[in-house]
Amino acid sequence: MSSETLTSSEYIKHHLQNLTYGKLPDGSMGFAHGAEQAKAMGFWAINVDTMLMSFILGALFLWIFSRVGKKMTIGVPGGMQNAVEWAIEFIDSSVRGSFTAKNDMVAPLALTVFFWVFLMNLMDLIPVDYVPQLTHLLGLPHFKVVPSTDPNATFGMAIGVFLLVIYYSIKMKGFGGFAAELTMQPFGKWGAPVNLLLEGVNLIAKPISLALRLFGNMYAGEMIFILIALLPFWAQWPLSLPWAIFHILIVTLQAFIFMTLTIVYLDMAHQEHH
Amino acid sequence: MNINATLLGQTIMFAMFVWFCMKFVWTPIIAGLEQRKKQIADGLAEAERGKLDLELAAKRAAEILREAKEKAGATIAGGETRASQMIEEAKVQANAERERILTGAKAEVDQEIFRAKEQLRTQVTEIALAGAAKILGREIDAKAHNDLLDKLVTEI
Question: What is the ipTM of this complex?
Fold first, then answer.
């Protein structure tokens, strides 16, 4: 274990650092070694591990599902098709339950959100040292396996949802209707500034809560795994096993919450008055 | 842990995934599910119709059976009456035949009797003539006494 040569705090910091690619202080392009260098890269840097893992997981999900979609039979479904159909029907009933307007985009969106987030969260159950040790052999200084512990990933999705909320708000109610919704309630037209403040906070709170809830849960879970990994080896499994079992619940629950809130926000965007 | 361009990359990736999911996952699978739902509904309707058909067929079969039974009963009854009728007819015919044969026989017998009588009569004439000749001792002139003899014959 690499922690033998590191102090506990160095070990934790090492595990919480993304593999960031950007402009190094000396002017060349490369991977950041440590949080200070990553910070110094500014906005125009990219977390390669987050991008790579989330792409692999999303592509895996879409590959499996689209293969079933292509080979779909109307007769008796095989094992894989059965599982996929069950998942699709689960999402479909969730969407039908919470989304009252008509929009063919929402259900596939919910499906993607649920399985992508679920798979990203599921990476948390891989023992914390396995992948970083492996990539260390490839010469990469850091590697975070769980994309949803990177706020960039969760905020990236939340911004996507937020843009859809704004798009459908304007599409359904018109620009004037959306502006009126933000300024004309709850205090009538003379309270417009206060209304705008309240409704603005309400609007902005949606993506922020969406992103931070997922990020916070996964980050905390990951942190506990890292702390357990610092213990002597005989004390690790009695702690990490129950936490991992409990974490299966969190992984699923957070994916489900993210999906449900996405549906609910989009439903609110389609409603004339709420 | 800091926010950087990954944010944009993730948003773009998210949009691409949603688009792909909509086009290649959701649409074909939901279409397949709908198609299967329709097929099952059709199958159930078909089964219902089949059951109805079966019921109708059973009803029709019972009807046909009943009709056949009725027809058979009628045929048997018809046969019976025809048979008795035929027997009656035969009886009548037989009776007529018997009458005919009987009358024929009677006529024949009468004829025989008549012929025998005729013969007897001629013989009686001869005997009477012979007897008379013997008694008189002489030849009787048959011609002279013919009318007398004829009278005798008719008397007998």
Answer: 0.88
